[in-house]
Amino acid sequence: MRSVALIAWYELYRLFLTKRGLLSLLAFALVWFLILRYAIYGAAQFFSVDQVGGIIAGLFNSNIINNLMSWQVPEIAMFWVVMLYLLPIFCVMLAADQTASDRARGTLRILHLRASRDGIFFGRFIGQLLVLFFLIIIALATTLILVMMRDSTQLLPALRLSGIVLVNLMLVLLPYTALMAWVSSMARSARQATTYAVIIWIVCSILAGWLSRQFPELWVLDMVLPGSQVSSLLQLSGWNTLSLALIPIVQTVILLFLGRMIMQRSDW
Fold it and tell me: Which residues contact 14 (CB under 8 A, 6 or more apart)?
């Protein structure tokens, strides 16, 4: 457990105290500023006056639109929508290099002198989750500042909604991070790991779709891929969103099992 904790905290160190990590953080900050200014702020204006823009209405069905308009703080509602689709993409790119480059450089052998294979595998996985957690906190803080600038009386409702959003976003990201832990245990570079993830995603998506059409009783296959519950999440609000929490948890357990199995058997 000590080695898992040390490796996990080292992932935070690499993000905040290394040149490469700070550049990644700067890139995220710039992209997030553009999204905050032109997506969240602009879209929230429509919801705050009970109007929905044509683009927003075209992206989602009426049930989702009505649910979003019921949120007390429109900025948090738009943050919820944007992050549900943006964060998984960022997660795949950020978490692709959990063990791949260390395997190519041979540094996994050095790490293995001080930590078990499980310690390295789960330490990197937890470390990536910590990095994502802090990025979400930073993004939420800037959104709350935007809320205060518009109407300071909505700060307390925004804080309550922020807790709900934070918990659900971490649940959504669990299987994506586990997927990248699995493919990274097979790859020798972050690019290769990303390629593996895309191939696995496409093959599983096609296979699951075909099987569910041929055998309707196998509807559970629609829940195989990470993020499969996102469209359903958008139709829920409050802590009712946790009713779907079992889906990403089961996905994560299965993906971590596959990744750990390969990590234990791989030859460094």
Answer: 20, 21
Summarize pLDDT for 220-267 with one digit per residue, the tens.
Answer: 777 788 888 888 888 888 888 899 999 999 999 999 999 999 888 876
What range does the domain containing 226 cover? 2-265
The structural domain count of the chain equals 1
Considering the entire predicted model, what is its pTM?
A: 0.86
- What single-letter DSSP state applies at residue 36? I
Opening angle at CA 189, ends 258 and 250, nearest 5: 25
Whole-angstrom Cα distance, residue 193 to residue 10? 21
The closest alpha carbon to 126, from 113, 141, 140, 115, belongs to 115
What's the token pair of residue 185? 């245990």
Contacts of 158 (CB under 8 A, 6+ apart): 73, 75, 76, 143, 144, 147
